[in-house]
Specification:
The chain is of the alpha/beta class and 214 residues long. It contains 7 helices and 7 strands, in the order βαβαβαβαβαβααβ. The protein has a 7-stranded mixed β-sheet, with helices on both faces. The longest helix is centred in the middle third of the chain and has 18 residues. The chain is globular and about 45 Å long.
């Protein structure tokens, strides 16, 4: 457990959700239990991206039962990039922790990343094993190599879970309209002098549905 302290940053814990009826209740309940016992100053945001299954109703039921969960609904399916951006815009705490709702990532990884915020502005939880097939592994490798070649910035695992100082989100307007927007934000931050760190973690295989990033 983290003891509440004025030196600890407050955190907006954000979850994009699209057709995650099989996992969303577990993920939000687990996050609430961990965070409510942690001593952190936090909020939980979940944005339903126009799901066609029961995700929306499940999210609303969970939010009515548990405290400090704020629910957002996109007007139709806007895509992962637009959902990320809305969560970023709606967050109000010092740092934004962008997680997933497919149970690949445990919310508990947040507590490994928080101590690093004393020295870094962005902390990326890099995946030891992405559980990718050969084609997607190649795409991911190229995606992460491009920023180094084109901009001289290492983005590590740009599509992974990360903890971002909200000041960075407010300062830089991202131009990309694709999943590359996450890499773009890291590139802009690094070139402006913000400090970025990577923290390797183990992730589970996606339990349901289909991933929408790299």
């Amino acid at each position: 457990m983290i003891t509440r302290s004025s030196s600890l940053p407050s955190v907006s814990v954000c979850f994009p959700a699209y057709n995650e009826e099989a996992t969303i209740e577990y993920v939000l309940t687990e996050a609430h239990e961990l965070l409510s016992a942690s001593g952190l100053n936090y909020e939980i945001l979940v944005c339903d991206d126009g799901s066609s299954d029961r995700t929306r109703s499940i999210v609303e039921t969970v939010a009515a039962r548990l405290s400090l969960i704020r629910v957002l609904h996109n007007p139709g399916n806007q895509g992962i990039r637009a959902t990320f951006e809305r969560l970023y815009r709606e967050s109000v705490k010092d740092f934004v922790f962008l997680n997933s709702t497919d149970r690949q990532w445990e919310t508990a990884v947040l507590f490994d990343l928080i101590p690093l915020t004393a020295r870094f502005d962005i902390v990326i939880a890099t995946r030891n094993d992405k559980h990718y097939g050969p084609v997607r592994r190649l795409v991911s490798w190229v995606f992460n190599l491009m920023p180094v070649v084109l901009f001289g910035v290492r983005t590590y695992d740009a599509g992974a879970v990360k903890l971002v100082r909200r000041e960075i989100i407010e300062r830089f307007e991202v131009v990309s309209r694709s999943p590359f927007s996450e890499a773009e934000r890291l590139i802009r931050a690094a070139r402006a002098g913000y400090r970025i760190a990577a923290y390797p973690v183990h992730v589970a295989e996606r339990r349901t549905g289909r991933a929408r990033g790299v």
